[in-house]
Design brief:
Number of helices: 9
Radius of gyration: 18 Å
Helix content: over 70%
CATH superfamily of the largest domain: Phycocyanins
Distance between the termini: 24 Å
CATH class of the largest domain: Mainly Alpha
Low-confidence stretches: none
Strand content: under 5%
Largest sheet: none
CATH architecture of the largest domain: Orthogonal Bundle
Order of helices and strands: HHHHHHHHH
Number of strands: 0
CATH topology of the largest domain: Globin-like
Mean pLDDT: 91
Number of domains: 2
Shape: flat
Length: about 180
């Protein structure tokens, strides 16, 4: 996993050049927005169980066959596995958001996920839908517009941070679709 600083060093080393002014400016922006990033990760992490359970519930409301006999969320152990996987995905999204880098998400969560789900018979359309619901909730927490709970957060525009968060969820959706 590379954070913003490691990426700058690796990029400069690849070019066999010192870190340039543009990279320094990017790092200054990363640092300046650090408290907003920490607030966003805290808001998502503090509400992880609610985000995941709401997403799975929403997915099931749209496809009640999932909890019927023979459905992929029936019996209880399959439902528990679904909730567990949702929490794992959300956890890795928060890791990526904290680092400002998707490599940990790609390497430790998404690499081979679709193949695993296909082998297990997990419906990827339902998985993608649950992740989409988690994305909406997480972005609402980043923007501090979630109806469930407001946080005291660092002031400032969080549009780019919300877009970054959405992008990580989009990576998950693309990986399972």
């Amino acid at each position: 996993m590379l954070d913003a600083f490691s990426r700058a060093v690796v990029a400069a080393d690849t070019k066999t050049a010192p870190i340039g002014a543009a990279e320094i400016a990017e790092l200054k922006t990363f640092i300046a927005n650090g408290n907003k990033r920490l607030d966003a990760v805290n808001a998502i992490s503090s509400n992880a169980s609610c985000i995941v359970s709401d997403a799975v519930s929403g997915m099931i409301c749209e496809n009640t066959g999932l909890i019927q006999s023979g459905g992929n969320c029936y019996p209880n152990r399959r439902m528990a596995a679904c909730l567990r996987d949702g929490e794992i995905i959300l956890r890795y999204v928060t890791y990526a958001l904290l680092a400002g880098d998707a490599s940990v998400l790609e390497d430790r969560c998404l690499n081979g996920l679709k193949e695993t789900y296909t082998a297990l018979g997990v419906p990827t359309t339902s998985t993608a839908r649950a992740v989409g619901i988690m994305k909406a909730a997480a972005v609402a927490f980043v923007n501090n517009t979630a109806s469930k709970r407001k946080f005291d957060v660092t002031s400032g525009d969080c549009a780019s941070l919300a877009a970054e968060t959405a992008g990580y969820f989009d990576r998950v959706i693309a990986a399972v679709s």
